[in-house]
Amino acid sequence: MCAAITAASAASVLDSRMLQSFFNAHLHKPHIKQVGSLFSHLIVSTTKSRFFISSLADHSSQSSSSSSVNEEAIKTHVDLSAIDCSRIVKSVILRCSHLWETNSVKPFGYSSLKEHLLGISDISPETTRKFRRVSELKPEDVLEILLGFQFHRENPQIESGKVESLWGIFKWSNDQNKGFKHLPQSCEIMASMLIRVGLLREVESLLAEMESRGVLLDGHEIFSNLVEGYVCVSESERAISVYDQMRGRGLVPSLSCYNVLIDHLVQTNEKQLVFRVYLDMVEMGFDLSNADMANLENVIRLLCRDGKIQEGRSLVKKVMGLGLNPSSLILDEIANGYCEKKDFEDALSFFVEMNCAPSVVVGNKIMYSLCRDFGTERADLFLQELEHLGFSPDEITFGILISWCCREGKLKNAFIYLSEILSRDLKPDICSYNAIISGVFKEGLWKHAQDILHEMVDMGIKPDLLTFRVLLAGYCKARRFGEAKATVGEMVNYGLIQLCSQEDPLSKAFMVLELDPLAIRVKRDNDVGFSKTEFFDNLGNGLYLETDVDEYEKKVTGILEDSMVPDFNLLITRACAGGNVKTAMMVVDEMVRWGQELSLSAFSALLEGLCASHFSIKAVTGLLEKMPKLVNQVDEETLNLLVQTHCKKGFIGKGKIILNGMLQRHLSVKSETYVALLAGLCKKGNSRTIRCCWDLARRDKWLLELKDCKVLVGCLCQQKFLKEALELLESMLATYPHLRLDVCNMFLEKLCVVGFTTIAHALVDEFLQQGCILDHTAHSHLISGFCKEKRFSEAFTIFESMQAKNLVPCLDASILLIPQLCRANRVEKAIALKDLSLREQSIDSFSVHSALMNGFCKTGRIGEAAILFQDMFSNGLLPDIEICNMLVFGYCQANSVRKVTELIGVMIRKDLGFSISVYRNVVRLLCMNGMVLPLLRMKELMLRENNFPHLIVYNILIYHLFQTGNSLLVKVILGELHKKGLLFDEVTYNFLVYGFLQSKDVPTSVQYLTAMISKELRPSSRNLRAVISCLCDSGMLRKALELSREMELRGWIHGSIAQNAIVGCLLSHGKLKEAESFLDRMVEKGLIPDNINYESLIRQFCWHGRLNKAVELLNIMLKKGNLPNCSSYDSVIQGFCTVNRLDEAMDFHTEMLDRKLRPSIKAWDALAHKFCQDGRTAEAESLLVSMVQMGETPTREMYTSLINRLRSENNLSKASELLQAMQLSGHAPDFGTHWSLISNLNRSKDKDSANRGFLSRLLSESGFSRGKSSKQG
C-alpha cells in the first residue's frame, strides 16, 4: 500500500497551513463535552449519504490524478545513482553484526573449571557440586562427571551447549598437567557425546590426542558413529576418510554404519566407492537379512546402469554365499544391463546360473531388443529358452513378436503368434491387431481387413483412432475408396470424429490421414485404351488419382509401416505438446510393458510437462530415478527447470543432486535456479549449506531479476541470514543503478516485515549520510516496522523527521501510528496526521477515521471519539460494527451506562448486530453497576438477534456475575440452562469452579470440579491449584489427596502451588513419610512442571531434619532450569552444619557464590562456628576473608569463635591480631578474652610472619591498613 502513495503526491498537497497544523492543531480547543444529539444524525436519509459518498469518490479521483503528476515531479529529485553501495552496506554490516553473530564462545583453554561446571550444573547438580572446591581433577573425577551427565541427560535439544562444557572440562583436566591420562571409558563417553551433537572434528582431535598419549580405545563404535555423523551432515569426503582410517586400523564398522554410508554414496552417485564399501561389508561376513536388501538393490542398480554388469553379478554371488537370495529387482537390473549391452547370451547364462526367469517386463524388453536388432527368429528361440527356465510370456510378449513379424513381412508367423495368445486364454492387445491389419494391407489382402476388425470387436477390444487410420491408409493404398468412405462412417459411429452432412466422407478420410483433400482428385479415365486407369470401380469404370502419386503412396505406406510397431515416443511427445501430461504418463507405463525406452526428446518433453503441471513431484523424481542415463543427456534448460521445481516443492536434496550434476557437466545455472535452491534451503535452516550455495552462486556471477530478488530477500530475512541479505542488496544496487530506489524500498520493506527494523533504520541512516534523498515510502516502512515491534518512541522519531522534510507517511503506516500517538498523549499530532492522510489518500478515509477512533477509545478520550463519530457521519461515512465496538468499549471504560444504552439502541435500529466483544463489555459494565434487569435483557437480545452459540452468551454472563460477587444470580442462570437442556462445556465448568471458590462456596466448587472430571473434561491448571490449596487451607487434606490421585491417574501436571499445599499440609500434620512418598510419585510419573518452585518445601524439610529430601528438591529445581533463592541454600547449609556435615555444607556455600547468590549472615556464622568447633581453623580463617571480600561484616560471634579457637591452639599472636580486626569492625570483645590475650602476649615472643600476613590480609579486605590501625591505637 505504501508504494501506491509517493513523495510526489505529498509535495503537491502539503501547503504551509497544513504543515503548521501538525504543531498547532487543537491546542486551544476547549474541553470536549458530551454531545446530547450525537445519535440524531444517524437518522439522515440514505440518499443523502450516497450522494455525499459519490461526490467524495469524484473528488478522490481528481486528487489522485494530480498526485501522479506531482509524483513524477518529486521523483526527479530522488537520485541514488552516485552513491557508494559497497561503503553503505559494509557500514551497516559493521553497525548491526551483533544481531546475527552469536556471542563467541570463550576458548576452552581460557575458561576456568568453575565456568565449565556451572555450564552443566543444571543437568547433574549433585555430581558437579562436589568438584567446585577442587583445584585439580583426577581421571576418576572426570569419569564420574561424564557418567553423571550421561545418566541425567533428558532433553537432547539443549544438549549441544552442555556437551561443549563437558568438552571444556575434559580439555581442562587434560591440560592441567602433562602426566594426566584420561581413562578409556571417559574418552569413549566423551566421543559419543560429541558425535551426538555434531562436534565431529573435536572427536577426531580427541582420538588423535588419545592415540598419541597411548590411550587405547574400543574405537569400533566411535569410528562407526563418526562416519554416520559425517554422512548426516553430507560431508562425504570426511566420512570416507574416517572409514579408510578405521579399516586401516583393522576396525570393522557396524552394520548400521555400512548401511548409512552405502545409502549416502548411492544418493551421491559414487559408483566406485559404493562398490568398494559394499564389497568390504560382504567380505566382513555380516549376517545380512531381507531388511538389508534395499541397499543391495540400490548398489546393483547403480553398477548396472553404469555398465558394470560383471561387478554387479559377482557381488550377487558373494551375497548369495551369505545366505541372502537376491530379489527380483536385482535380477531384473542385471538383465537390463545385459540387454542394453546386447549381450543376450550372458543374460541367458545369468538366468541359468540363478535358476530363475526374468520378470515379464524385463523379458519383454529382451524380446523387443532381440526383434529389433536380430530379428524375430532369434527372438523366438530365446523365448523358448526363457520358457524352459519358467518364464511366462504375456499377450505383450507375443504382441512384440506379432508387430515385428508384420514389419518383416512374415504375416503367417504373426497369425501363429495371435493363435498362441488365444490358446493361452490371453487377450490380444489392440496394438497387435493394428499390426496384423497393417500387415494384411501391406500384403495386398485388403479383403480380410474387415474380418480381423470384426474379430477384434468380438473379443471386446474397442478400435481406436489408430486402428481406423490403418484401415483408411490400407483402403486408400488399395484404391478402395468406397470402403474408405464406409470406414469414415464407422468412425463417426464410434464418436472418434464428426462429419457434417455437407462434408465428403472421402475428403474426411484424407484429412484423417493428414493428406490435403484439395490436392487429391479421383477421376474417370475416358480414354478408350484406359491409358491412365489405375483401378476400377464396381461398375468397371477406369479411375485414376490426379495427385502426386509418389508422395501419396509414401504417406499411406508410411502410416501402415508405422502402425506395425507402436511408436510410444511419438505418442508421448504429441501428448505433452497438447498439454495432456496425464495421458503421456499412461503411455509411459504402456511403453515399459512393450519393452521400449524413452527417447531423449520424449523424456525432455515429459519432464517439462510434468514440471509445468500440477502433477506430484514424486512422478518427476520416479522418472529421473528410472532414467539416470537420460538425465545426464538432458539440456541445461530442462535441468534448470528440474532444480527449480524440486526446490519449490520442498525436495531440496534432489534439487542439489541435479545441480551438482549440472556443475560437473559445466552447464550454465540460471539465477532463478539459485534463488529457488536458496529459498528452499532457508526454509530448512541449514546455515552451512546455505553459505556454500551462496558462495557458489556469487562465484557463478549470477544476475538476479527484481522479482527473484524479492523472493530471496524475504527468505533470507525470515531465516535471519541478514549478512547475506545485505550482500545481496549491494549486488542489486550495483546491477540496477536506475532502479536503486525501488531496490532500497523493497529491502526496507522485507527487513521491517520480519522484525529487523533496526537494520532497516541503519540502512536509511547510511543513505542519508551520503546525501541521498529518500522518499516517504522508505520512512513509512520504518514507522510500520517500529510499530509492529512495539518500539513506538523510534516510530515517533521517524515521524518527526518526516515532518521536517514535508513528507507524509503512507496510509498503512499512518493507520498504525495514529493510535500510538494518542496513547503517547500526542493527540494533536494524531488528529493532524489524520487530516493530512485524508488529503493525501481520501479514497480510504474510513480506515484513517477508524484508526483515530481506536486511539481515542483506547485512551479514554470518549468525548473526542463521540465528536469524531459525529464528523464521520456528517461526512457520509456510515459507521460499521467495528466503529460501534470501539465506542462501546470507550463508554464502558468511562462507566457511562446511559451512553452505552443509547449506542446499543442505535445499533439495533441500524441492524448492525453485536459482536462478542461488545456483549462482553456491556455485561461487565452492567454487572459492575448492579443493573440486573438490563443485564438479563441484554442476554435475551444476544440469544435472539445473533447467531452465536448460546452457551458462549451464558458463559460470559456467568463469568462477570462471579467477578462482581453475584453468585445467587448465577444459580438462577444455571437453572435456566438446565431448563433449556444446554450442556456445560469446559469453559462453563471452569468458570463455575473458580467462581464458587472465590465466593467461599467450597463444596459447590468441588462438586462442579468432580462433575467436570467425571465427564472427562480437564479443569484449568488455575482451578486445580486453587481448589487443592483451598482444601488444604480448610483442613480437608483427605479431599485434596483424592483430587490429587485423580490427577495422577490422568497424568495431569501438579503445579508448584498444588504440590506445596499438599506437602505443606502433610508436614504440618507430622506425616513426613507420606509427604516424601507424594513427592517421589511426582518425580516417577513425570508430573512436575518446568517452572516448579520448591523453595518453601526446602526450608520446611530442613526444619524437619530431612536434609536429603531438601537437597533432592533443590536439585529438581536446578534440573528444571529454576534457580532456588538464597533462603533455600541457607536452610540447607545451616541444616548440614547442624548435623556436622561440613563438607557438604561448604559445597552448597561454594555453589551459592558461583551462582552469584549471597549467603545470609546466619549461614556464614554457622559455617565459621562449626569449623572452629571441629578444629578446622584454617578453613574458618579463609571463610572470614571470603566474607569480607564480598563486602559482608563478620559477626561478633564469628570473631569470638575463631579467637577462642586460636587461643586454644596457643596461636596468641594471630588471635591478638584478629581481636584488633574485630575491634575495627565495630565489635567489642568481652573483658576476659581481651585481658587473657594481653597477659598471654606479654609472655609470648611469637612473631610468625604468616600470622601477620593473615591480619594484614583481613584488615586490607576490611578497608584498614596496619599502619593506620597502629596509629589509631
Automatic annotation (TrEMBL):
Q: Which InterPro entries match?
A: PPR_rpt (IPR002885), TPR-like_helical_dom_sf (IPR011990)
Where do the PPR repeats start and stop?
219-253, 394-428, 429-463, 464-498, 775-809, 845-879, 985-1019, 1055-1089, 1090-1124, 1125-1159, 1160-1194, 1195-1229
- PROSITE patterns per the UniProt record, alphabetical: PPR
Give the superkingdom in one word.
Answer: Eukaryota
Asked whether the keyword Repeat is assigned, the reply is: yes
Alphabetically sorted, this entry's keywords are:
Repeat
- Membership in a protein family: Belongs to the PPR family. P subfamily.
What name does this protein carry? Answer: Pentatricopeptide repeat-containing protein
> Can you name the source organism?
Vitis vinifera (Grape)
